[in-house]
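Run log, item B.
One chain of 232 residues. Sequence copied directly from the ordering sheet:
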Amino acid sequence: MTRSVHTKVGECRSLPSRQALRGKASAAVDPSDQLRLQPARSERAWVELGGLLIGAALVASALPAQAHASHAQSGPAPIRRIVTTEDAAGRAVVLADGHSANSVTLNGSTITRLWETQGSPVAVPVAADLGATAGNAYRPGFTGSSLYVADIPPGSNLKDIPLHKQESMDYIVLLTGQIDLVLATGPGGGKRVAMKPGDVLIQAGNNHSWVNTGKTVARLLCVTQTGVRPKP
């Protein structure tokens, strides 16, 4: 009894059956024939290997989701702040590299101050870490620019952050979370703008507040420049 096996496109040849091979113990058997005689075992091996690969892929794909869930519960990661400048020889150097410890918490929201400059234009290079000593960007008498991050926890509302305005031009980016920019209050919820990560706000001295509508901390990156309001 024989069977046909394709070896090349358009070509086939007959192979002896297993019973015939057993009857010819003294005859040499082509190793390729032995492999062809065990198609079921080869198929099972490939199926098992495929199952292992699929299982490994599923486990690997679940890890980022678990890490993300853990990260969401613990809040945003600390902010790494890198400051570069020039030394006396004009070579680029790192002045500071690490997590900023200059922060303050008010009504649950945390402000991390990263840098500030006074006046304009700014003198460069710098020799001191002005972020370590930066103060309130809106303090009386201060004129210049400020860079800070605001972490607003879920559930924060108008009671925590009442409507307010500053004499400044603010450039704000929502890095993580969900938040509503509140421009006015009143019937029907007033006037709001929903922001999602990556949205940029350019704010010119108007009334505003923040309401965190999500389940995680909303992180805002803020750059402010002292402004002046013309007198009527």
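Observations after the first pass:
- Residues 39-74 form the longest helix (36 residues).
- Confidence is low (pLDDT under 50) at residues 2-15, 24-29, 31-37, 52-73.
Flagged for discussion on Thursday.
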